[in-house]
Structure formats: structure tokens, C-alpha cells
From TrEMBL:
Coiled coil spans: none
Key word Hydrolase present: yes
SUPFAM superfamilies per record: alpha/beta-Hydrolases (SSF53474)
Name listed for the protein in its UniProt record: Alpha/beta hydrolase
Keywords assigned by UniProt, alphabetized: Hydrolase
Family: Belongs to the AB hydrolase superfamily.
Amino acid sequence: MTTAHSFTRHDITFPSGDSTCAGWLYLPTGVTSPPVVILGHGLGATREMRLDAFAERFAQAGIAAVAFTYRHFGDSGGHPRQLLSIKRQLADWDAAIAYVKARPDIDRSRIAVWGSSFGGGHAITVASRHPELRAAVSQCPFTDGLASALALGPVASLRMTPVLARDMAARVRGKAPAMVPIASAPGSPALMNAPDALPGYQALQPPGTTFRNEVAARVIPTIATYRPGRAAKKVAMPILFCVSNTDSVTPPAQTLRYARTAPRGEIKRYDAGHFDFYTGETFEALVRDQIEFLTRQLHPAPASTP
């Protein structure tokens, strides 16, 4: 019977733009030049919110893992705080790829990216821009800002207009950003107000988390026009889409339309909500499918047999 690899976890930082990203590096013990998967999270989330759970399983399968937090969030650098910039987050992904390529203890020819929710959309974009990658995983991905805005509802969207105007004015004047909640109760203004959004985010937070349930409101127009699903057709390497059939945040019908355009795409569907993907039986099913996919693409060394 094959056993799981043991692993070590290391605190890391790497430069990105004008600052740094903080992260964790998981290395399978006793493995020379393992493949690596880079993990990035969703809207305003930090790596402490269950990215470690996925990274640990990948490391046990013989795949090194880097889980990082975007600039402006958590313990990463960047000012002002809680600034959600799509352009900067994509640059953070590029910086993470450059970081693992520069490490002598990782096989730079076997790199994969893994993103969840908003990060799942980023993973599609990043994979379309980095043909040297070996594989990508896009979990409950944000693929179409317009579709997500329609899911939020026009009334809730309009209620965020005043805070958006205040933040735009603050930006011009060099003042502190005006914030909007990431997740809130149904009917309340926020980037996400589906019934499972606020409890979903709360369930992912460990004690002492660095997560703050707010972002600078100036991101609202850019989220609405961000459509990373359109890049799926340009992803040359194998990409696994893990889709929630009942997703309240990233509507599955549009996600599936985009996923089917990926030349080497694989699709797995789950009867679980957007926020159920990180814990319990759904997490176990997801991580099992993802390890099977990543093992096929990255060919990690098997653990020793007792």
C-alpha cells in the first residue's frame, strides 16, 4: 500500500510590483525537484482561509505547493490596505510563478496554478498567458462579472453607488479608501449577498485570522467588466474546472459555457454550494479529483511503500 509523503511548511515572501506577497511553501520531504502548484484565493480572502488544507494534501501527494496572499491583504505588503486590484493580483500571480522558477529545489518545468472563486478566474487568465505551465485548476471560478452582477441583483448593485462615488473622490484626493463589505446578509449592499455568502466566509476564518470583510469600493466597476472565462479558449495546457451546480455567486451555466471552450479542459460538477467546496465531504471529493488530475499532469514521485 502506497503511503502519503510527509512534508515541511516554510514561511516565504516574494517581491511583487512595489511590495511583497507573503506565503507558505510546502515541500514533500525526501523528494528532489518536485513539481509545484501555486494556490491563490478568492475575493478579499487570505491563504489562512483553507488554502492550507488543499496545499497539505497536494504536498502529501508529492507535489510542492505555494499558497500566497495577494498584496494589500492579510500579512502581505501594499498600501492602501484592502485594495482589490485585478491588475495587481494578476501581477502577484506572475511574481509567484517567477519565484518558484527561481528556486533550485523545485522543478521549474512542472508548474501548475490553482485558483478558487475570484482566484479561479485569475487561474484561467494566468494559464492563458503562461503557456509554459503544465496544468491549471479553476475551482468554483468567477468567470463573468456581468453574470455575477446580475446574480447580485440590480437593487443591491445600485445601493453601492454612493460608497463607490465616495471612494472615487477619496482616490482623487489621496485620502483613505471608502469601503464596501465583501459579504453581507441578503438585501444588504455588498459584493456578495447570497444567503450563503456571509456564513460561508465566516466558516473559513480560523482563530486570529487576518481577514477583513471589506474592500475599497473602487473595485466595483472593474469586477463588473472582468470576464476571465473568455480566456479559457486560449488555455493551451490541461485545465480542470470544478463547478458547483448550485453556485449562488458565480452562476454555473455561464461558467460551463466558458469551460467547454478550453481545448484541453476537463469539467467536474458537484452538488454543493460555492462555500461548501472548502470543508467536509465536498472538500474531500474535490481534493481527491484535483490530486488525480494534477498527478496525471505533473507526474510527482510516488511515496515509498512500507
